[in-house]
């Protein structure tokens, strides 16, 4: 678990980075279901991707849909 101090540092860094990056003029979003995403991750065979949690993928999908 991250300490409050570490979280504040990361949060401040994130806010600074966001303030320096311009929004894109165009963003292409390819919609995909969670089972399809999990299938593609499995096919790629990247060890670090295999540990991505389903609730994380669901949250990402929800954020993209809201945006």
Largest sheet: none
Order of SSEs: HHHH
Shape: extended
Helix/strand/pairing category: mainly alpha
Enumerate how many helices there are, as a single number. 4
Quaternary state of the chains: single chain
Give the averaged pLDDT, no decimals.
91
Helix content: 55-70%
- Uncertain residue segments: none
Radius of gyration: 16 Å
Distance, first to last CA: 29 Å
β-strand percent reads under 5%
> How many distinct beta strands?
0
What are its keywords?
mainly alpha; 67 residues; single chain; extended; 4 helices
Task: Describe the protein in words.
The protein is an all-alpha fold and 67 residues long. The protein has four helices and no strands. The longest helix has 17 residues. The chain is extended. The model has no long low-confidence stretch (mean pLDDT 91).
Tell me the layout of helices and strands:
Blueprint: H1 4-20, H2 34-44, H3 47-50, H4 54-66
Brief synopsis:
This protein has 67 residues and is mainly α. Helix content is 67%, strand content 0%.
């Amino acid at each position: 678990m991250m300490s409050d101090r570490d979280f504040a540092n990361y949060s401040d860094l994130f806010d600074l980075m966001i303030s320096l990056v311009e929004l894109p003029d165009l963003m292409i979003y390819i919609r995909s279901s969670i089972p399809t995403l999990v299938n593609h991750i499995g096919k790629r065979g990247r060890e670090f991707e295999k540990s991505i949690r389903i609730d994380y993928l669901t949250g990402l999908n929800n954020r993209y849909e809201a945006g």
